[in-house]
Amino acid sequence: MRVAVGTDHAGFSLKASVVDAIVAAGHEVVDCGAYSIDPNDDYPDFAEGVSRAVLDGRAERAVLVCGSGVGASVAANKFPGIRSALCHDTFSAHQGVEDDAMNVLTLGARVIGPSLAAELVATFLRAKFSGLERHQRRLNKIKAFEKS
Fold first, then answer.
1. What ranges do the domains of the chain cover?
2. How far does CA 78 lie from the centroid of its chain?
């Protein structure tokens, strides 16, 4: 699987751990920046980068990191077809994929450390959408929202 990664300056400290976890799980990284710490960069730019990578097929999923994770997740969810969630526990990281077809995992570098980030990324990447009727029905309703 190809996995896009994007971090702003506040999330940059977790980038190496995220990339290492993706590679250790046997996946390919699509690097959407940041490539260095720039205190003047803005998380919406990286949310756009990973979202477009997923939407145009350069990546199947993405991991997005900012300071809290909140702003980046909000920004990513503005793109129709993106289902981003801020997860700081393993249950949410897999359940979000299994039940809700989450395709962007968002993390807060000022909230969690590198070990937990790596565990969350691995959990997110192992998870598969269940396709159960009730989950597909709910996903279809969300897709209808995006079209209205």
1. 2-147
2. 14
The pTM of the full predicted model, rounded to 2 decimals, is 0.97
Whole-Å CA distances, 89 to 34, 35, 48, 122, 128? 25, 27, 24, 12, 17
Q: Is 66 a catalytic residue?
A: yes
Q: Which of 66, 93, 121, 122 is catalytic?
A: 66
pLDDT in tens, the chain (148 residues): 999 999 999 999 999 999 999 999 999 999 999 999 999 999 999 999 999 999 999 999 999 999 999 999 999 999 999 999 999 999 999 999 999 999 999 999 999 999 999 999 999 999 999 999 999 999 999 999 999 9
CATH of domain 2-147: 3.40.1400.10
Residue 82: left (phi > 0), alpha (psi -120 to 50), or beta?
A: beta
